[in-house]
Specification:
Blueprint: E1 6-13, E2 18-25, E3 30-34, H1 40-46, E4 51-56, H2 62-65, H3 68-75, E5 79-81, H4 88-99, H5 108-114, E6 132-133, E7 139-142, E8 145-151, E9 160-164, E10 167-171, E11 174-175, E12 178-179, H6 189-200, E13 207-210, E14 216-217, H7 218-221, H8 225-231
């Protein structure tokens, strides 16, 4: 029997245009929602008619998690994350307590200058950060799909990527043109390079779906690894 192929729907949400992914098998309504960064209504509309079995966070930065508590409550499903990312959400909240706004990395200054309200946290009590742990190498059955979890730290200590049916969802670990942001608290450039090496060992035809922006392939990015190491970001 030919296995069902993976179907991926992208919903772009939030102040940093985060890619939230809805993953399911063809001809199957069971689904996994990855990185619900904001706008729960838009994500729920995109997932209408599907049986969402879980929410998974590639990492716990604010722009990947803000809709997670509302969706988890609405769908009565767990929020999955690697346990090494446990310090990240408390660190995000600490930044808000100290500054009054989210840390959007290199985009912070521009966003504050253009529209500071967009970096304000939502009203009400913050998410408690509780997640159900997933482990490196764990396989998540989503309908007829086998979704493999890879621990790919560096951008955050518990960052994960998901490999399924010729696709890899890389969160903020790998983008067209290089690795994700490091140099901030809880991130590390040598660590993310080790994670990127792991991802670039996947078959060249593997489609890379990052946490922001356009897709690429392993084959398109692999020749540039040493350029990224030399430039240091």
């Amino acid at each position: 029997m030919i296995p069902d192929r993976a179907i991926l729907e992208r919903v772009v949400v939030g102040v940093l245009d985060t890619n939230c992914w809805i993953l399911r098998a063809e001809n199957d309504q069971r689904a996994l929602v990855v990185d619900p960064g904001d706008d729960p209504a838009a994500i729920m509309a995109a997932a209408r008619g599907l049986d969402v079995e879980a929410i998974l966070l590639t990492h716990a930065h604010f722009d990947h998690v803000l809709a997670a508590p509302a969706l988890s409550a609405a769908w009565q499903v767990p929020v999955l994350a690697h346990p090494a990312d446990a310090p990240v959400w408390p660190d995000e909240l600490d930044v808000v307590r100290r500054t009054g706004y989210w840390d959007a990395g290199t985009a912070t200054a521009e966003l504050l200058a253009r529209d500071p309200d967009r970096l304000l946290p939502p009203p009400g009590p913050p998410w408690d950060g509780r997640t159900t742990p997933v482990a490196d190498g764990e396989v998540l059955p989503i309908g007829s799909l086998a979704v493999q979890v890879l621990h790919t730290p560096g951008h955050s200590p518990g960052g994960v990527s998901l490999v399924v049916d010729g696709h890899v969802l890389t969160g903020d670990t790998l983008f067209p043109g290089g690795p994700g942001l490091t140099g901030t608290r809880l991130s590390d450039f040598p660590t993310i390079i080790r994670s990127v090496r792991t991802l670039l060992d996947l078959p060249p035809s593997t489609i890379v779906h990052p946490g922001h922006g356009a897709d690429t392939t392993v084959g398109a990015e692999r020749p540039h690894l040493h350029e990224w190491i030399t430039r240091g970001w």
